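Backbone description:
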Amino acid sequence: MTELSLEISRHLPHPPERVFDAWLDPKMLSKFMIPGAGVSVPEATSDAKVGGRFRILMRVPGAGDLPHEGTYQTIDRATKLAFTWESHNSMENSVVTLDLAPKDGGTDLTLRHVRFPSEQSRDDHQGGWTSIIAKLEETLA
């Protein structure tokens, strides 16, 4: 059986350092980790070091408060960030990797997420991450 994964690529008109730093800043996380309409993030914390943990509490209409947590595995400023992804809709050893490359005065961002319990979970995350990256671009503007 092939492991379920997803990949999203997008060019953002902001320098890699700015895009990268947003992923480690709790104030920024609370502004852009919005996977869908009506979702808010009343709490976000980040211990931005390899082995450090983050916590993002997503408040979802009709579903309540859904914590998303993880451990930073790789922190290579402006180039690569990798972290585990622990939520109600993930499985053990689920990992998100962000690769950033400077291009045309901005950043080519590629997000890869591996290990999902089902195709439905992967598809839900595909939509969520796509919305989050769009919200990141809006927040950085």
Q: What stands out?
A: Residues 23 and 29 are 6 Å apart (CA to CA). The chain is about 25% helix and 40% strand. The two ends are 42 Å apart (CA to CA).
